[in-house]
Amino acid sequence: MSTELSPIDKAKFVAAKKAVEFVEDGMRVGLGTGSTAAWMVRCLGELVRDEGLKIKGVPTSTRTAQLAREVGIEVVSLDAAKWLDITIDGADEFDGDLNLIKGGGGALLQEKIVATASDQMIVIADAGKEVETLGQFPLPVELVPFGWQTTQALIEETLVSLDVLARKSTLRMNGDTPFVTDEGNHILDLHLKRIGNAQQTAMVLNQMPGVVENGLFIDICDRVVIGYGDGRVEVRDINAGTIEENMLDFVESENVFSDLAD
Ligand SMILES: O=C[C@H](O)[C@H](O)[C@H](O)COP(=O)(O)O
Questions:
Q1: Of the residues 46, 111, 142, 213, which is catalytic?
Q2: Inter-CA distances, 150 with 146, 154, 155, 158, 190, Å
Q3: Strand (E) or helix (H) holding 84
Q4: ipTM
Q5: Residue 186: how many CA atoms within 13 Å on its side-chain side?
Q6: How high is the pLDDT of residue 247?
């Protein structure tokens, strides 16, 4: 079974497998969105089914909510949970300070609300997501549909004052129509190449009328679990640096793989 996985999927899987070790019985858990987070939801589902782990999961997208229910996790709303013990989510990029770019899958708004309402946020990622400076991955910005072109023009104008290398932006599409988020908004992807001051960029973007949220997660993530294609995992803590490195076994979770729908 494991030989069917590409090295990148193996890396995502081992990161997810390691991260669920931080989830304890009775916890309220924020469930991220994306291909890496999907592994984590499946691994949690396995613990719920096979080991009787009792958790309440707060999903960050309709996709994740559906998957969580499929694998047997009790799903509750954030308002019902009120506060979360832990959130585990993927990322598009992370830097040495564990600041992130998220939103490649368009779920950044719910993801940021959920992560911010958690005692700790753990990011799971393959090693290729680590960057020296954020910005090679296009920065997603969620916009209300009303007047989005005006908002885009305002953003492009304002980028001139920010420490970024490039300033192109594109509306994310879903075929011939604009992509629509779970909250009914659009996503503008900012092709900045290098974001010199991520905190300032995040603040300036969020002050603009029409902008709902941006994909920069600054000072939110506590730990990153980095997975490698050969099964190695590294746990990096915001305060303590690398706190654990080991190898994980692919075979023990064959039932997680066999559940895979995509
Ligand atoms: O909106 C999507 C999320 O921020 C994802 O967590 C992020 O795009 C990473 O996704 P993946 O694990 O599929 O690379």
A1: 111
A2: 9, 6, 9, 12, 15
A3: strand 84-89
A4: 0.99
A5: 21
A6: 85
Contact 154, 208 (CB under 8 A): yes
CA distance 101 to 62: 21
36 lines ligand 1 (CB under 6 A): yes
Query: Does 90 sit in the ligand 1 pocket, CB within 6 Å?
Result: yes
For ligand 1, whether the C-beta of 213 sits within 6 Å is no
Task: Say which residue the tokens 């009120």 belong to.
Answer: 82
Tell me if 189 sits within 8 A of 152, measured CB to CB. no
* Closest ligand 1 atom number to CA of residue 12: 12
- DSSP secondary structure string for all residues of 29-81: EEE--SHHHHHHHHHHHHHHHHH----EEEESSHHHHHHHHHTTPEE--HHHH
Query: How large is the average pLDDT for residues 1-30?
Result: 91
Residue type for position 42: R
Domains of the chain: 2-130+219-258 (3.40.50.1360), 139-214 (3.30.70.260)
Establish whether 156 is a catalytic residue. Answer: no
**pLDDT (tens digit, 9 = 90+) per residue, 171-222?**
999 999 999 999 999 999 999 999 999 999 999 999 999 999 999 999 999 9
